[in-house]
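Hi there, hope your week has been kind to you so far. Do you reckon you could talk me through the fold, stretch by stretch? I've dropped the whole record in just underneath, so have a look:
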Amino acid sequence: MAELRLSLTRRLSALTLISACSAVAGCGAIGAPALPFKPEEATVQNVRSAVKSSFISCRELASRYQLLHDSLDPSLHAVVTWNIDLLQDADRLDAVPTAQRGNFHCVPLVVKDNIHVAGMQSTGGVLALSGGGVSTDAEVVLRLRTAGALILGKTNMPDFALDGTGTQSSYGGQTLNPYNRALTVYGSSGGTAAALGASLGIVGLGTDTYGSLIQPASANGLVALRPTQGLI
């Protein structure tokens, strides 16, 4: 399923988790201008407008998220696998003619580590399952990638998604809350939620059996969208 970050009129991020404001930048006014462009508090529409007007390239945008990840994630453990081909992917998106660009062109996406992304491993949070990458995208990832999404990396989750009270895994360790390190991020999509709360992406995919989207959303200033099976 998916996790979108959405500040109602401001933001469409996927847990289709959705966020009202980030722990990094705090809440700004709805509709406030996004210039100069910064990844903190950026929305899908901000990205589309900035890229379309050539205010920023996909490569520059990717580089800014890379810097944000490098400075914040070591203390959060939200992202367990970063996309080593990120800048090449951004260059490929920059080369797409304007008329052929999809609705998610260059929108930064994070994906829970039980959803396949081609070329990246899917551990399900389990150390024993880490290793080589998978060869194909999950259908939801393929559709978002076709729409132009820029995949930043894979997010932490409890082993086999079997814990809703927190996000700690044998592979990725303990994910901490970007607002307050003493508070839980819940689970099992807590890695995606923490990444979005810290502005380490605009859209994030998660999965839900019972409360695995809603609980992490409640702990990280997000709104969760739980679509019917096969839809986002």
Remarks:
- DSSP finds six helices and nine strands in the chain.
- The two ends are 7 Å apart (CA to CA).
